[in-house]
Amino acid sequence: MGGFLLFNAIRLGFFLTTRALCFYVIPMQPQTPVATPNLSTSVNESDRLASQTPKSLSTAGNPVLRSWGKMGLFLAVALILGLGVYFTYTMRREQRNQASYEALYLARTGLETRLKTIFEQRESASDKASKGAESQISSQFDVEKELGKELVAFKTVESTYPKTYGAFQAAMLTGRLFFEHELDSTKKNERALLHFNSALSFARDQEEVAIASLNSGMVLEAWGRCQDAIKHYEKSRVNTMMWLQAEAALGIARCEKAKPSNEVSARAAFDKVIAAYPDTTWATQAKALKP
Domains in the chain, please, with CATH? Predict the structure, then answer.
């Protein structure tokens, strides 16, 4: 599609430029009528015949052609400048996106390495403490203390490449880190919501808006702020993919169930999920959670 538009834009620019050159830059020369020489014709008579050449054939004598020539030249120059600005902007945007991908990749690689080290150390310490007995390894820890360097790397991606895929994913990953691993429950919800809202500000399309809103709704639901959670869930259902709509609908049903003395509305909300998404994991969850 982009190649087709570019090809036609170039054709239009060429057409306008050639028309401008024909009508303005290189005006047409008047054509004198060819006549058989007549020695008896006087000089005055020859001058009179020459003066009868139609002026409409010359741009110098036709203001309409001159104005069209000027307009064509102006449009051609404007089109060329516009295409130059557009392609320069597009190229720089793609370069920023590519740079954000690379920075995000490095930050994620560092995070994965650090998380692996943390859990290996915890597993080793748990084995020594339990001395062969079965034990569970907690995935909760002080995120800011254990992952300080990694959090800075994600923040750098956000501040260096705002409004890019890299910035959006960096904010989302930071929010998920706090929501899934933070030991302090208050800090967990506050920090997670803060970073999901940052991701929302970096969103470039409706799908990213829906993803950030869905995660914000999940945090608010876990926090017990169901009315606020429902608002975010509703936002994530607008013009987006089916799985996002289903997750949001299930979240709304859970929030309705959490409200006191609201069994009728909760049952209706779960029934909507079952009817809208039959034979799916969301319908199965709705049947299990339905009061």
Answer: 206-291 (1.25.40)
